[in-house]
Amino acid sequence: MKKQYLGWLLTVLVVLSLGCSLGSLTEKAQEVGEQAEELVEQAEDLAENAEKLTEGAGGEEEDAPEAESDEGEIELDPAALEGLDSYRTIMIMRFEAEDGTIEETRMEMSATREPAAHRIVMAGGLSADGDSMEIIQIGNQQWMQMGGEWMQTQISDEDVSSFEENLPFSPDDVQADMLEEAEYLGKETINGIRTRHYLLDKQLLEMMEATGGMAPGEVGEVESAKMELWIADQGDLPAFAVRMESEVEGLEMGDEKVAKYFMSWDVTDINADITIEPPAEATSGGLPEDIPAYPNATNQTTMMGMTSFEVGDDFETVVDFYAAELVSAGWSKAEGGMSMEGLVMDPWTKDERTLQLTISSDDDTGEVSVLIMIEGEE
């Protein structure tokens, strides 16, 4: 489906954001050079599709204490994640066209507090080229896989996804009277958690009419719409959305019409033993063992046999470092290099492998950037 579908659904159904770190990843990837431009464009497209994807919390508890709650009142806790150590969410988004064609996307996200880590696996129509996409974030290191290729990058502290920052459904994201008028359907146990079950149908239609989608006139007449919420109702857990299901029929988007749209969101594995690790394919520092990593390098990006980063030392110090360290690692400098003020481009060889080293200095800031491109098998 088109990006406009995703944008509208994220607005209406409160799928919250991991987008800042993806945007940072894309900006850093552009620095790798002309040979990486095609992949960077793909990453930018993916960032647009992946923006406004999410965080939540959930899991299973045995013999949990009962909560004292008003049966007809939804009281979501905006700080629900603060007392949790880990969680996993599973989202399914499905579009059915008038001709019966179905497009489905599944996303699973895991998060741990210590160490601070997130993992997202996305597959289906809204992921890259319909294939799977995976993002792993541990501290300020991020790995992203699409099309079978891994990209590694460093992200700034402000772009690191917070464990506490989002819930699948928050009072701040919808009109207040929408929750007040929800129909209470009773108590149920969902994903091992005692919950209160609510139905929103009239309220969802009113919200869709009020938001108007991404732009005025973009969302036309809707035949029917409903949303069901299951809110945690246990004394040992905060009040958060354990499950959310939404269904819209007859959704008009410009000249197109979606016969039926369905979305489900489940929260599981609260405080479970979840392990999030770097991908096995990722090498230490993004470089093979026989290529020296520069000390204290920043803004590092690795993809498709290329690694780029910035260093705080002066240009000549960096040039001298690699001239000495590559020889010590068994590399031989080949002919055809180029050197001028503020720029060195040298080819190196070792066995059947070649390495292209580019070191450049910005004339205005003096900032030194390094690009290493490797061809051939170790």
Short account of what is shown:
The chain is of the alpha+beta class and 378 residues long.
Helix content, binned percent: 10-25%
Q: How would you describe the shape?
A: elongated
Whole-angstrom Rg: 25 Å
Percent strand equals: 35-45%
Quaternary structure:
single chain
- The number of distinct β-strands equals 18
Distance from N terminus to C terminus (CA atoms, Å) equals: 42 Å
Output the structural class: alpha+beta
Number of helices, where a helix is a run of at least 4 consecutive DSSP H or I residues: 6
Give the biggest sheet: 18 strands, antiparallel
Ranges with pLDDT <50 over ≥5 residues? 1-62, 211-219
Question: Helix-strand pattern, N to C?
Answer: HHHEEEEEEHEEHEEEEEHEEEEE
- Taken together, the total number of domains comes to 2
Mean pLDDT: 72
Can you give keywords for this protein?
378 residues; alpha+beta; TATA-Binding Protein; 2 domains; 18-stranded antiparallel β-sheet; elongated; disordered N terminus
Describe what this molecule looks like in 3D.
- The protein has 378 residues and is of the alpha+beta class.
- It folds into 2 domains: 183 residues, no CATH class; 92 residues, TATA-Binding Protein (2-Layer Sandwich).
- It is 17% helix and 38% strand.
- The chain is built from 6 helices and 18 strands.
- Strand 10 and strand 11 form a beta hairpin.
- Helix 2 runs antiparallel to helix 3.
- The N terminus is likely disordered.
